[in-house]
Write a sequence for this structure.
């Protein structure tokens, strides 16, 4: 050919002769807004949900070892639990972990504060709420989610362990989700520390005395929980579990390598 007037490029597509339409893709994008109704539809929400995963993965992919700390949004700054959680944040940083929280007030703030003051990585994964709330001031790496389930994926995906401080429905939801994921092997077994025996013992006893005898959970499921009142014990439990997991991974790699070698030699 090529008569320039008889060829049209639409992105990577070449159109010629009668196939040539009016205008360019950019023109169609920029010349008209069209109806705005689409932003209230599920297909558009799917894109927003996708963007939350993209932002979350992008922010946290290089985080390194981390522990998610959960607990009440209502813990007052002068409550002993605030001071304990602050010490826990510091101790986790000293043990080489970043600290991830929901980025809100109360216990979340205390954990972020301890981590930040200890010079560690203090992460807050906030959530859009019906009332105004910004990330607590001790969050050094933060992101705000619209969707609970996208945010919850980050708590699990980027943590080596959970510490559950005393809390209400939100905290209970986070604890039971973690336990369900481990029980159903959606995540490889990882430690869940219940911090505060006076607060959690009743729940633990009910699980052991009622739920397990009724056959609703196995005895082994309760082994997933570690109850303590001691910051150093909580951290030591997490470190030991992490070491055990590394050793198991090393052993699995050794077995796999050996199998490949033997198969190659046949
Ligand atoms: C109710 C108040 C603030 C709520 N703000 C929150 N911000 C971020 N994350 C939150 C918030 N509330 C709950 N969460 C999540 O659930 C857990 C705490 O819930 P609980 O019911 O208070 O135990 C926590 O780990 C967060 O991930 C008052 O100011």
């Amino acid at each position: 050919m090529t008569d320039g007037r008889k060829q049209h490029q639409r992105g990577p597509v070449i159109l010629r002769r009668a196939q040539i339409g009016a205008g360019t893709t950019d023109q169609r994008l920029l010349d008209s807004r069209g109806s705005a109704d689409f932003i209230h539809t599920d297909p558009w929400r799917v894109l927003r949900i996708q963007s939350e995963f993209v932002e979350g993965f992008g922010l946290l992919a290089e985080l390194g070892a981390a522990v998610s700390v959960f607990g009440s949004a209502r813990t007052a700054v002068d409550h002993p639990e605030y001071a304990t959680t602050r010490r826990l944040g510091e101790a986790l940083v000293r043990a080489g972990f970043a600290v991830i929280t929901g980025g809100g007030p109360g216990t979340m703030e205390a954990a972020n504060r301890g981590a930040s003051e200890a010079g560690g990585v203090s992460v807050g994964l906030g959530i859009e709420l019906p009332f105004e709330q910004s990330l607590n001031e001790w969050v050094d790496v933060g992101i705000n989610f619209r969707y609970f389930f996208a945010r919850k994926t980050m708590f699990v995906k980027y943590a080596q362990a959970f510490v559950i401080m005393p809390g209400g429905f939100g905290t209970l939801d986070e604890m039971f989700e973690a336990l369900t994921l481990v029980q159903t092997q959606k995540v490889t077994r990882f430690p869940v520390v219940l911090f505060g025996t006076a607060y959690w013992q009743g729940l633990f006893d009910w699980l052991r005395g009622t739920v397990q005898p009724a056959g609703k959970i196995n005895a082994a499921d309760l082994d997933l929980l570690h109850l303590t009142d001691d910051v150093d014990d909580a951290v030591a439990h997490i470190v030991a579990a992490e070491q055990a997991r590394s050793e198991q991974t090393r052993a699995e790699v050794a077995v796999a390598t050996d199998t490949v070698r033997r198969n190659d030699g046949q």
In short: The two ends are 61 Å apart (CA to CA). The mean pLDDT is 92. The chain has one domain: 47-237.
